Amino acid sequence: MVVNVVINGYGTIGKRIADAILKQNDMKLIGVAKTKPDYSAIIAYRNGLYIYTLRDNIDKFEAAGISVAGTIEDMLDAADLVIDATPKGVGAKYKSLYESKSKKAIFQGGEKGDLVEVSFNALCNYDKALGKKYIRVVSCNTTALCRVIWALKKNFGIKKVRATIIRRGADPHEIKRGPIEALVPNPVKLPSHHGPDVKTVISDIDIVTTAIIAPTSRMHMHVFNAELEKNVTVDDVIDAFEEAPRIILLSETNGFNSTAAFIEWSRDMGRKRYDIYEVPIFKESITIVNGNEIWLMYGVHQEAIVVPENIDAIRAMFELETDGFKSIKKTDNSLRILKRWPE
Ligand SMILES: NC(=O)c1ccc[n+]([C@@H]2O[C@H](COP(=O)([O-])OP(=O)(O)OC[C@H]3O[C@@H](n4cnc5c(N)ncnc54)[C@H](OP(=O)(O)O)[C@@H]3O)[C@@H](O)[C@H]2O)c1
What we know:
The chain has helices at 12-21, 39-46, 58-63, 72-77, 90-100, 122-125, 140-156, 194-199, 234-243, 259-268, 307-317, 324-334; strands at residues 3-8, 27-33, 51-53, 70-71, 81-84, 104-107, 118-120, 134-137, 158-168, 184-185, 207-214, 220-228, 247-250, 279-282, 287-289, 293-300. The protein is α/β, with parallel strands linked by helices. The protein has two domains: 3-138 and 306-335, Rossmann fold; 140-300, 2-Layer Sandwich (Dihydrodipicolinate Reductase, domain 2). An eight-stranded parallel beta sheet has the order 4-3-2-1-5-6-8-7, sandwiched between helices. A six-stranded mixed beta sheet has the order 10-11-9-12-16-15. NADP nicotinamide-adenine-dinucleotide phosphate is lined by residues 8-14, 33-36, 85-88, 90, 108-111, 139-140, 171, 302-303, 306.
């Protein structure tokens, strides 16, 4: 079976998922929807994508030289599944339209967990998404936390997690967010929402998170601390992370000493939009205290990390692959996700 997919919301996340779908042989991209005929819409159109919009905006698209394929309703009629990548909170407003057209839908991390049947992370709960109609791929920060927790929990057991999230102030293309010169507790009253969000995927985890928004646009960074159920060595932890999909250890000896280095590495490798799908861990940050307490730091490329999860969610919802690890492998091969570097 080939699943016909449409994307409502062709922004930071939507355009990357569109590119990833074009690389799969078990799903087909039917079209994408936007409300404004801006440069992104024009480039997508020139690259051969079918563009849909709101009925009232069709004239504006035509005036910009974009011959629209139809309305968002028309786009849904041609689909088996819609990826909703509209801005935070807008997806919830669209759900009744998706329901009325009997279309499966994947929402993103800006939507609330109670909108869907399953909050999804491919490593943690692929099985729960099998055959489901409404799924939410959790946010970039929650996705990274889930992957790291999954690898540690599976190998050593976890008593509790305490993590601090240093959040990027804006995505690179955004001009209305900040801060420009401040570090902003997010929120001042602890904890942050990320811990509860992780629990929508891993319900039995003891986790508390705090967050600070920083004047940077390219990546988030996490300072992660956990108490494990057994004593471990740094080498044990390195082995566990080396085996885990979508996590990569990058060494200071190769120059990986900041999020800027991660981005430059991805640019040097020629990755489109310098996307980093993996969780890049600062290898030398892995520290063990008192035998069973682990500390580490890693980056999160907010624009890209959720892309492979969306591809796996499609496969699970249509049971194209019932074994989550087979889907992960297929997705990772198609997106050239790395396990080791250099390799
Ligand atoms: N950016 C991140 O770091 C990140 C990471 C993980 C998850 N997420 C989540 O992913 C979702 C999308 O975020 P994003 O950062 O990709 O947002 P974005 O860059 O602002 O993109 C949103 C897209 O939706 C379109 N849109 C706006 N209103 C619409 C409507 N009523 N109908 C159809 N399309 C509409 C916008 O195009 P027009 O302007 O032309 O309307 C734009 O293409 C959110 O839930 C967010 O929380 C974001």
